[in-house]
Amino acid sequence: MATQKMLKVTLLKSKHGRLKRHRACVAGLGLRKIRQTVIVVDTPENRGMINKVSYLVSVEEV
Q1: Which of 12, 22, 24, 29 has its CB surrounded by the most CB atoms within 10 Å?
Q2: In a domain, 55, yes or no
Q3: In the structure, what pLDDT confidence band is assigned to residue 3 with cuts at 50, 70 and 90?
């Protein structure tokens, strides 16, 4: 069984005052507070959400 690649995503800027779709992407990634970090699976869906809000988050491979 192959291990899945994981991504460590950290919210760096506030989601307040952003587009509704961008706030939805941040919520979809499981982020609520500034400087909160979550680990998500590296899937095309998660990559798409990260790319959409790339100006709000930082990403590292785990």
Answers
A1: 29
A2: yes
A3: confident
Antiparallel, parallel or unpaired: β 6-11 and 37-41: antiparallel
User: What are the two backbone dihedrals, phi and then psi, of residue 16, each rounded to the nearest 5 degrees?
Assistant: -70, 140
Query: What CATH number has the domain bearing residue 41?
Result: 3.30.1390.20
Identify any residues that bridge with 7 across adjacent strands, giving them in sequence order.
40, 61
Which domain, by its residues, includes 39? Answer: 6-61
d(C-alpha 37, C-alpha 58), whole Å: 9
Query: Domain for residue 15, yes or no?
Result: yes
Report the domain count for the chain: 1
pTM of the model: 0.91
Amino acid 1: pLDDT: 55
